[in-house]
Amino acid sequence: MTPEKKFGAIYLDIDNLKIINDSFGHLEGDKAIALVMDVIREVLPYGAVIARLGGDEFIVLYDCETMEEMQSILGLIKKNFLENEKVKAKEYQLECSFGVSLFTSEFASLEAFLSHLDGLMYQEKFSKQS
Predict the structure, then answer these.
(1) Burial bucket for residue 91 (CB in 10 Å: 0-12, 13-18, 19+)
(2) What is the pTM for the complete model shown?
(3) Protein fold of 7-129
(4) Bridge-partner residues for 7, per DSSP?
(5) Is 9 within 8 Å of 116 (Cβ atoms)?
(6) Tell me, what's the pLDDT at 1?
């Protein structure tokens, strides 16, 4: 499979959503999901799309040519999590783990690309536990 044009993606998972649901209730878990979306949408460039994949996993897609562009977007997202007053006001820590990459001809399929992103996201998630 050869993509006609590169695009970037950020795969993300909300850390410890089960603990938030169990400790504060599912309504609060839903509010946490909505807040995560707000924090991310605030800094996405024009043309970027965010979609829920299921549960607490989401993907951001952006038409770009370089990893630097995607790393810049990811940096803005992470900075907004640290600085957002609504996130700071929560009784719990609201964080996400991220995997970022470009879809290029190196990937045989979209499924292979998503698997790669998922692996990168889990690397970040597991690095937080060490």
Answers:
(1) exposed
(2) 0.91
(3) Alpha-Beta Plaits (3.30.70)
(4) 103
(5) no
(6) 47
